[in-house]
Specification:
Elements: H1 4-9, E1 30-44, E2 49-54, H2 69-78, E3 83-87, E4 94-96, E5 118-120, H3 122-135, E6 138-143, H4 150-164, E7 168-173, H5 192-209, E8 215-221, H6 224-238, E9 242-252, H7 262-266, H8 271-285, E10 289-297, H9 309-324, E11 330-333, H10 337-343, H11 349-354, E12 366-369, E13 373-376, H12 378-387, E14 392-399, E15 406-413, E16 419-425, E17 431-436, E18 444-450, E19 461-462, E20 479-481, E21 488-493, E22 497-503
Parallel strand pairs: 1-17, 2-3, 2-11, 3-6, 4-5, 6-7, 7-8, 8-9, 9-10, 10-11
Antiparallel strand pairs: 1-14, 12-13, 14-15, 15-16, 16-22, 17-21, 18-19, 18-20, 18-22
Helix pairs in contact: 3-4, 4-5, 5-6, 6-8, 9-12
């Protein structure tokens, strides 16, 4: 089998200045040949698609609730079998309030920390279970390591396990522990060893009450010493209870940085280190590995970058790239500006750039609220694109010549009765691709991801359609490709766009 990293890097784009995906081609489009091979190079899991929210979102028990019907529709539209991760920085400033008389734990906030801890109630957990049932999603649930205690974490773990039942994928303990010194949660002596020792104390307290509890971690950026400690001693000490290795990734940031641009987002190379560390951790631990928190620009996103068509193209291609390298899932972080501000010490840096106060974080896939309605943001459409090929097997592809701005992924269905080919053009030149996918494929239909320009924040569409006000999406464009007897076909892929070909 071809090395997964080499397969991915052979098709990764590296674009220059990007322009509209809908304009008439200027000059002759570049011509390329693409061959789809029979060699299998990976698998896209059924629950590859995921969303991530701050734990304090549970402070509003009506948010993740079956009665929040438009949000339910948006989740179900995004994926028929997704994963909701609850965690983020604010997970360290919550507590489980078992009853109405439960007092908040003693709390003396330090600079940049919330003034109060957020209670999570049994009602919020019951509503969360009903929301998960309505969407047919599962949940990764984060517990408070930063300001919590083993006893409180165990109590909450029991309540969460009882409330969510089979919808609980696993528990995580702590969020980004490698940043605890910066967040004023631990002294300067804090390191991967002191972290693991403390994590183990919490895990043991949970397992004393829930012997079959499933755990994941370390839920942080791919810092090799921390990740390897979980992959080696975590597996040794906790055996079958440790079920997944988890990490975070932000392509760029902070928002104020001049380097946080669309061009650098689409050409991002930081991910290569992340991939190396996680593939290594997966091989060491023999466990699945998942990116449980990811987005374009940390600290809430950057306006006119994180909320554009560029973010959709980046998210769709990133999801398929990670799947080809063995990641079992990707959870894009989001939520309201209020909650992201709370996780950042009260400020959303992108507001300074936009010269306004935003209601939503700039990178969130889903914006809005129950009172004013919910909307699918551009990055949602990239995730929707990728969700069409979940539960498939990846095949090797090769271009006729090396590519910097074009990437391709091919997938076959479980029963091998159909195939999909995803094409990404993140460059400034239109291309025409001569595709060879084998003589058994006689019909081809295309769905396109595009918008008015790479900087578009509205009118981004997939399949010629937008998500409606009820959270539903139905493709409107039916574009057929002519397929020769030998399975060859030609497809135009305009600049700053992506195409998903369905072959049968």
């Amino acid at each position: 089998m071809m090395n997964r990293r080499n397969f991915c890097l052979s098709s990764v784009s590296a674009a220059a200045v990007l322009r509209s995906s809908l304009g008439v081609a200027q000059g002759t489009p570049e011509s390329l040949a693409l061959q789809v091979h029979t060699e299998e190079v990976g698998r896209i899991s059924p629950d590859m698609i995921g969303l991530s929210y701050e734990s304090t979102q549970l402070g509003d028990a009506s948010f993740f609730a079956a009665a929040n019907k438009t949000l339910v529709s948006l989740f179900h539209t995004l994926s028929s079998r997704g994963v909701l991760r609850l965690g983020g920085n604010t997970s360290e400033f919550t507590y489980f309030a078992a009853g109405s008389n439960t007092a908040a734990p003693p709390w003396s906030p330090r600079p940049t920390q919330p003034a109060k801890l957020t209670p999570i109630t049994p009602l919020a957990l019951r509503n969360l279970r009903e929301f998960l049932e309505a969407t047919d999603w599962d949940c990764i649930y984060g517990l408070n390591l930063g300001t919590g205690t083993p006893a409180r974490a165990a109590q909450e773990a029991v309540a969460v396990t009882e409330a969510l039942g089979p919808r609980l994928k696993y528990l995580q303990i702590g969020n980004e522990p490698n940043n605890y010194i910066r967040y004023l949660l631990r002294p300067d002596t804090w390191n991967e060893r002191t972290y693991y020792n403390e994590w183990s104390t919490f895990a043991q307290a949970i397992l004393q009450r829930l012997p079959n509890a499933k755990l994941g971690g370390p839920d942080m950026g791919a810092d090799r010493p921390w990740m390897q400690l979980m992959a080696t001693e975590g597996v040794r000490d906790f055996g079958a209870n440790l079920v997944e290795i988890t990490d975070h990734f932000y392509a760029e940031g902070p928002p104020s940085s001049p380097a946080s641009t669309i061009d650098n987002l689409l050409n991002n190379t930081k991910i290569n280190h992340e991939i190396d560390v996680m593939v290594e951790a997966g091989a060491t631990s023999h466990l699945p590995y998942r990116m449980t928190e990811v987005n374009s620009c940390y600290s809430g996103g950057k306006p006119l970058v994180s909320d554009t068509l560029a973010s959709a193209l980046w998210a769709a291609e990133l999801t398929l790239r990670l799947a080809s390298l063995g990641f079992c899932g990707v959870n894009f972080h989001g939520g309201s500006a209020k909650l992201i501000k709370a996780s950042l010490g009260g400020q959303l840096p992108g507001d300074d750039i936009a010269s306004k106060e935003a209601n939503d974080s700039y990178y969130t896939p889903i914006g809005g609220d129950a009172a004013n309605g919910y909307t699918a943001k551009p990055i949602f459409y990239g995730m929707l694109f990728a969700s069409q090929v979940c539960n498939t097997t990846l095949l090797r592809t090769s271009f006729s010549k090396p590519q910097e701005t074009i990437s391709a992924y091919a997938m076959k269905s479980a029963g091998h009765e159909s195939m999909q080919v995803a094409l990404f053009n993140k460059g400034a030149v239109d291309v025409e691709i001569a595709l060879s996918a084998g003589p058994s494929n006689r019909k081809a239909v295309v769905q396109r991801l595009r918008g008015p320009s790479i900087t578009a924040i509205t009118d981004v569409k997939f399949g010629g359609a937008t998500v409606d006000e009820t959270g539903n999406w139905k493709p409107k464009e039916v574009e057929k490709l002519a397929v020769a007897r030998d399975g060859h076909m030609r497809i135009a892929v305009p600049r700053s766009s992506a195409a998903l070909i369905h072959l049968s």
